[in-house]
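Retro notes (design track)

What went well: tokenization of the new backbones is finally stable.
What didn't: we kept losing track of which sequence belonged to which structure.
Fix going forward: every design gets posted as structure first, then sequence, in one message. First example under the new rule, 125 residues:
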């Protein structure tokens, strides 16, 4: 009987300790927006940044503006390339994002031939 009480007490103490310890990865897992952006273009190294919102975090150069844009617009659509622009030299710029946006899995990719249009805040890095 005494041994059973000790085991129950030990299990209870361990359960309480586990609930009291803040889980370092829990914030990232609970975060609704967690994205990785990549930009690849000739003559430059590939650039990759991360962006997390609620709480704001990551290596994106303007986390606050990018998270505000996503909170207001909630979309990662890239603008179309201007069909009236004719390139003398093909200079492809590829943009890619993967992750979760507002709790949904997302992936987007676009390659621009020579002129990248004005991009929304999340894509400016």
């Amino acid at each position: 009987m005494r041994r059973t009480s000790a085991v129950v007490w030990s299990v209870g103490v361990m359960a309480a300790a586990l609930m009291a310890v803040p889980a370092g990865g829990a914030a990232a897992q609970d975060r609704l927006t967690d994205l990785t952006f990549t930009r690849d273009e000739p003559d430059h190294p590939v650039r990759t940044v991360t962006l997390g919102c609620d709480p704001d975090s990551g290596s994106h150069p303007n986390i606050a503006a990018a998270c505000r844009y996503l909170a207001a617009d909630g979309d990662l659509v890239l603008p179309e390339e201007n069909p009236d622009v004719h390139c003398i030299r093909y200079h492809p710029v590829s943009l890619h994002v993967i992750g979760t946006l507002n709790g949904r899995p997302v992936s987007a990719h676009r390659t621009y031939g020579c002129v990248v249009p004005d991009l929304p805040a999340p894509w400016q890095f």
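Added context from the reviewer: Residues 2-28 have pLDDT under 50 and may be disordered.
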